[in-house]
């Protein structure tokens, strides 16, 4: 009788999937959609209001419903991607975004549009965290640095391009669709994105996924709703009692959320937002800087859109194209960004705040001396310089925030950053926009615009001061 011996095959280490060039293009395309749609409606609101007989408070909900749903669900979207697979959530979120966009474009009433916008925000929250988590999990070294730089550039350019694209689509009135085109344009883009994603985006997930943190999810959602809902809707609704009660409840809900998350973290479980994640200096300081930057950015875009259309009497196209110099300089500066970061580190952020302040100062001077003939030419110098300054800040800060987050927590880190940015964008419209609209009756459109821009300038100075505390280099 003979005995056979078998030699065990060597176990090959698991090679993480790689994200190719076309896959990176696909996820960046998906990253652009939610940010474009946050801003694309700014120049379309007057047309929407006239066509659907919508009051000002309902129009506020068209913007706020999307922004609040997006912000509230982002961290949960990141956790679900870690748990069930990021590619799966990415495809599902993108498909849902396309369907919700179709519903927005076909909405027969203002309230139907609000409901579709809420669904669109929820779909964005499922899709966007998977973009950053996929980049974190499928790239490394120089490739990751390049991919994160491109992500930051895409995010910033999308916020400007959304407003320009909205003006062009409304004015073009394609096949008589009017304002509906700003939503319907997403449908073919989503279809192309789904076809590309199915072939080019690899599946990744956390190695030891944790179940969803139910109490943390509910408390985070309640905290964000308590803060964002009254701030975004309060002015148009006349600041009823519920807005003050909601704002008063916010600190207690936020405190309860922190206590629950800290207890879960200490017990060895993985909470929705692990407090231990904030021990990363790069993440903590990057998020603190992102708040005033994003608030100022979104507040500026809202205020300038209203001022150009209602004060300077520009059409939707002219109002959108007035920001073209900012978009162009942002794009080209973003391309050069990685080389500047490699040479000067995070000091490029400080330089960016100086340039943004100079550009904003020129815009303020143009508003004072050219009003009401404010358009592309008067805004060109200031917009061009401000675009350079913003491009030296946003991509760098986004890359910095996630630079030390371990791949296993990529979804959570992406969700935390997205929630911070989206909440700040909503707060910027709510605070700077509310200030501007409240000042118009007493001061007039020009002086209200100048005052709002001076407030934003103070925020830029704050950003510059905070940038001095950033780590000098990015991992």
What helical percentage do the residues reach? over 70%
CATH superfamily: MFS general substrate transporter like domains
**How far do the termini sit from each other?**
62 Å
Q: What amount of the residues lies in strands?
A: under 5%
User: Helix/strand/pairing class, anyone?
Assistant: mainly alpha
Largest sheet, described in full? none
What is the H/E string? HHHHHHHHHHHHHHHHHH
CATH architecture field: Up-down Bundle
What is the CATH class designation?
A: Mainly Alpha
How many domains, as an integer? 1
Per DSSP E runs of 2 or more residues, the count of β-strands stands at 0
**Rounded average pLDDT:** 85
pLDDT < 50 stretches: 1-13
Query: What global shape is seen?
Result: globular
CATH topology: Growth Hormone, Chain: A
Radius of gyration, CA atoms, in whole angstroms: 23 Å
SS summary, helix count: 18
What would you note in describing this structure?
This protein is mostly helical and 475 residues long. It has a single domain (21-212, 272-467), classed as MFS general substrate transporter like domains (Growth Hormone, Chain: A, Up-down Bundle). Helices cover 78% and strands 0% of the residues. It contains 18 helices and no strands. It has helices at residues 21-39, 45-52, 56-84, 86-106, 110-138, 141-172, 181-184, 186-200, 214-237, 241-266, 281-311, 316-321, 324-344, 347-370, 376-391, 394-402, 410-443, 445-467. It is globular. The termini are far apart. Residues 1-13 have low confidence and may be disordered.
